[in-house]
């Protein structure tokens, strides 16, 4: 008989955890944090933003003008955090600066990257990679390298739902769907990377050609993220969806089970036969059962906080639908 060893990988604060497999990694969120799981280890999805650097005037000969300094954290494999707040120094032409970076590394083998502007400039250029807590003296204009790419960005927000599509991570929290930067899953632009809906989002599911988002209604967003169209005049009950062998998805709505196709089409396969009374604590599980050559979609409903999870009224009668009917 084999034995199972339990290893605590990270604390979970939320009541439920949503996850999205991406290659050999799994992205998870509990509404408070977003993590990445790979190879029996868990890291925070976003590299922590460092504190603004401390800047003191020292001896030197930097040209007169206003200089700004900021820093980022950089993990060993090159992933960079959003930029810190900037610190400004106004110099008279006969001085330099000493800059001390954040002394608290967020992860082993992590460094900080120091950036500065030219006199009265607005673009931050890389000065040097430094260790946590290190002090750098800038007595004259140093060789400046590439511009910082993470100014105006923030860590990717957590959500109650997480999905991956088109090189981006998406999280849903309340009525807002957040997006990461393309192929930079820990970074998010607060003024650009979000979609607002009239009501709380209860479901986000991806198919070949885009994403279905369920809130006050059900919407389909194509893979170019440039538009969105209404596909159903109602939303969905919170809970899992079932993926079919043909790439379609089935989930539960207040009007029964719907089937969403890879190209963005959707149909209610119980139209006019089911109406479910729900509240904000209702969840539904939908799954595919294959038995004796028959494929069946089964949905159950649970009202959180009921006296008995299996008692009368906790679940609706199982709806069994032959595929194609």
What can you see in these coordinates?
The protein has 325 residues and is an all-beta fold. It is 0% helix and 45% strand. The chain has strands at residues 18-22, 25-29, 34-38, 41-44, 54-62, 65-74, 87-91, 95-100, 111-116, 125-130, 135-138, 154-155, 161-165, 168-173, 176-179, 187-188, 194-196, 203-207, 210-214, 218-222, 229-232, 242-243, 249-253, 256-260, 266-268, 282-291, 294-303, 319-322. The protein is elongated.
Short key terms for the protein model shown above:
four-stranded antiparallel sheet, 325 residues, mainly beta, single chain, 0% helix, disordered C terminus
What's the gist of this structure?
With 325 residues, the chain is mainly β. The protein contains no helices and 28 strands.
Topology readout:
Elements: E1 18-22, E2 25-29, E3 34-38, E4 41-44, E5 54-62, E6 65-74, E7 87-91, E8 95-100, E9 111-116, E10 125-130, E11 135-138, E12 154-155, E13 161-165, E14 168-173, E15 176-179, E16 187-188, E17 194-196, E18 203-207, E19 210-214, E20 218-222, E21 229-232, E22 242-243, E23 249-253, E24 256-260, E25 266-268, E26 282-291, E27 294-303, E28 319-322
Antiparallel strand pairs: 1-2, 2-3, 3-4, 5-8, 6-7, 6-9, 8-11, 9-10, 12-16, 13-14, 14-15, 15-17, 18-19, 19-20, 20-21, 22-23, 23-24, 24-25, 26-27, 27-28
């Amino acid at each position: 008989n084999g034995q199972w060893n339990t290893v605590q990988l990270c604390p979970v604060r939320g009541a439920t955890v949503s996850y999205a497999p991406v290659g050999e990694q799994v992205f998870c969120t509990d509404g408070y944090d977003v993590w990445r799981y790979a190879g029996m280890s868990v890291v925070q999805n976003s590299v922590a933003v460092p504190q603004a650097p401390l800047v003191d005037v020292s001896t030197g000969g930097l040209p007169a003008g206003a200089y700004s300094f900021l820093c980022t954290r950089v993990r060993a494999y090159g992933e960079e955090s959003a930029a810190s707040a900037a610190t400004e120094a106004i110099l008279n032409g006969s001085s330099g600066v000493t800059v001390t970076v954040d002394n608290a590394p967020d992860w082993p083998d992590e460094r900080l990257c120091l950036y500065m502007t030219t006199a009265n400039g607005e673009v931050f250029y890389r000065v040097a990679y430094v260790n946590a807590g290190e002090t750098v003296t800038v007595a004259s204009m140093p060789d400046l390298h590439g511009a910082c790419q993470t100014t105006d960005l923030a860590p990717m927000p957590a959500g109650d739902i997480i999905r991956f599509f088109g090189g981006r991570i998406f999280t849903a929290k309340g009525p807002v769907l957040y997006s990461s930067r393309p192929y930079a899953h820990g970074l998010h632009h607060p003024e650009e990377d979000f979609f607002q809906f009239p009501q709380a989002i209860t479901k986000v599911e991806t198919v070949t050609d885009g994403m279905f988002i369920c809130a006050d209604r059900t919407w389909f967003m194509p893979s170019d993220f440039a538009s969105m169209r209404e596909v159903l005049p109602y939303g969905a009950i919170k809970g899992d969806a079932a993926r079919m062998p043909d790439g379609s998805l089935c989930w539960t709505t207040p009007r029964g089970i719907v089937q969403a196709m890879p190209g963005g089409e959707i149909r209610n396969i119980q139209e006019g036969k089911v109406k479910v009374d729900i509240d904000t604590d209702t969840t539904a599980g939908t799954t595919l059962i294959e038995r004796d050559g028959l494929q069946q979609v089964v949905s159950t409903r649970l009202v959180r906080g009921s006296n008995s999870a299996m008692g009368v009224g906790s679940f609706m009668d199982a709806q069994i639908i032959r595929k194609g009917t």
